[in-house]
Amino acid sequence: MAYNITLIPGDGIGPEVIYAAKKVIDASGVEINWEVVEAGSKVIDEYGTPLPDYVLESINKNKVALKGPVTTPVGKGFRSVNVALRKTFNLYANIRPIKTYEGVPSRYKDVDLIVVRENTEDLYAGIEHMVSEDIAESVKIISKKASDRIVKYAFELAKKENRKKVTAVHKANIMKLSDGLFLKCSKEMAEKYKEIAFEDVIVDAMSMKLVLNPEKYDVLVMPNLYGDILSDMASGLVGGLGIVPGANIGEDIAIFESAHGSAPDIAGQDKANPAATMLSGALMLKYLGEFKAADKIEKAIAKVLKEGKHVTFELGGNAGTKEFTEAVINEL
Fold first, then answer.
1. pLDDT at 324
2. What region, left, alpha or beta, does residue 316 occupy, with left being phi > 0 and alpha being psi -120 to 50 degrees?
3. What is the CATH code of the structural domain delimited by 1-91+238-332?
4. N or C: fewer beta carbons within 10 Å in the chain?
5. Residues with Cβ within 8 Å of residue 106, at least 6 apart in sequence
């Protein structure tokens, strides 16, 4: 079976890491028809936007996309390509698997958790205004519908991946109505998944617990703002964003991408680390049901990281993007 997938190279190092991931996915044996569409700063002059309609049409048609980092223009009206895509396709779940890999510098061992972040509301709904000249107000939106949906996703993910525990992260001790509603929804949903352990932890305590004992956690689910912060913090525990994949998932559309930026300062120099984008590709294959190919890719990357002979400077080596890619393909 061949899959039709939208490929968005992006800006800066985006094309380098995206085509590295494409080569690895193609080498895994999964048959994919890639539809390449350009977005980002390179198309603004021609289309007046970093996200032309043809990109949205391609994603809407294919339902799955692999995306490189896209630069958000500074000083212009467009907030972010990523935010626009999440809103357009209602990509309500942001998924960030956090895992230690042997050979990657880290203070921790045996970390293997997933941050599940609600992606559509909370303070990131962007509802804010000036109350007076000296006071700005931002509105925090938490709904039962969105909370139920994201917590259910977290439990279903735990069930599918044979994980033992779901932890809901909140600040309901202070924000008794908004975070209180999220916590209430979490507890009610937990009653439907008795086979999976459940706990709730206040967000500031969760930050400390993650730094102290990250290996004790499995699936973390939380509102948008906490998810944004803790997913990056958790990435730092295992060596940084360079080895952490990501996904934004909706009801019938999913976009896979690493969380790191476009790093224009090293673009085109064969220096970029493609591991996170490759792992995002493996995450995409899992979503498609191609579990064997996804597992092969992750194991090949893990072996290259462990050996350390063909890794990029960010990972402590001297290899370029192309050499790293060829090493992973050789392992495949």
1. 97
2. left
3. 3.40.718.10
4. N
5. 100, 237, 238, 239
Burial of 275 (0-12, 13-18, 19+ CB in 10 A): buried
Distance of alpha carbon 151 from alpha carbon 173, whole angstroms: 19
Helix axis angle, 275-287 to 291-307, nearest 10°? 160
Superfamily of structural domain 107-233 = Isopropylmalate Dehydrogenase (3.40.718.10)
Contacts for 246 with CB less than 8 Å, ≥ 6 apart: 94, 95, 96, 256, 257, 258, 259, 276, 280, 283
Q: Is 266 helix (H, G, I), strand (E, B) or coil?
A: helix
Residues with a known catalytic role:
124, 171, 204, 228
82, 94, 119, 145 from 141: Cα distances, Å: 20, 17, 12, 11
Q: Does residue 77 surpass a pLDDT of 60? A: no
Could you give the C-alpha distances from 152 to 92, 134, 141, 221, in angstroms and in order? Answer: 12, 41, 19, 10
Phi, psi of 318, rounded to the nearest 5 degrees: -120, 5
